[in-house]
Amino acid sequence: MALSEKIQKTIEGIRHQFPTEQALLIPALHEVQNDYGWVSIEHMKDIGEFLHLPLSKVREVASFYTMFKLSPQGKVDLQICTNISCWLNGADKLVACAKKKLHVANGETTADGNFTLTQVECLAACGTAPAIMLNEDYYENVDEAQLLNLIAQAQNDLAAGKVVGKETRIEGLWL
Fold it and tell me: Which terminus of the chain is more solvent-facing, meaning fewer CB atoms within 10 Å of its CB: N or C?
């Protein structure tokens, strides 16, 4: 397997914005994840070859950042912050609610492949906790009723063929 022509073209198009091959690593990982939904070890090898970096360097970056998914994911990654501020403000109830509604445990994907439930350490919203993300959509001060409404809306959007979550990429530039 090699990186798709589309991914190679995108990386080549932004190469001038980065001082080194290693600096291109995160955008390359994003491109692979955007196209395939996750980053496999084969993709990491291909990225390393394309950027002339050892697999160990690619893997250490991909495994360090929780934004990179190293296994197949649902169409919607429901992330619930369970750090101390969120936990004290009800994140434990949100996790229990999501588990019950989706019939999955932390890190699992629903049988239909639509949702993956992920507990994360910090979504940087301590003052407005608890916080969650549905793909790239960010929500604060979430309670159980709101969570259930957000899940229902995501289910409706998926059924209608819509993508859940915002696009954070502007052509040729990562935000």
Answer: C
Q: List beta partners, residue 80.
A: 119, 132
pLDDT band with cut points at 50, 70 and 90 for residue 142:
very high
Q: pTM of the entire structure?
A: 0.71
Domain CATH number, residue 121: 3.40.30.10
- Cβ-contact 32, 47 below 8 angstroms: yes
The β-bridge relationship of strands 132-134 and 169-170 is unpaired
- Report whether 129 contacts 88 (CB < 8 A): yes
In a domain, 95, yes or no: yes
Q: Are residues 21 and 92 in the same domain?
A: no
Tokens representing 100 are 């019950």
The pLDDT tens digits of the residues spanning 130-140 come to 999 998 888 99
Answer yes or no: do 58 and 83 share one domain: no
In a domain, 69, yes or no: no
Tokens of 120: 């994360």
Distance CA 170, CA 69 (A): 21
Question: Do 24 and 88 belong together in one domain?
Answer: no
**How far is CA 165 from its chain centroid?**
10
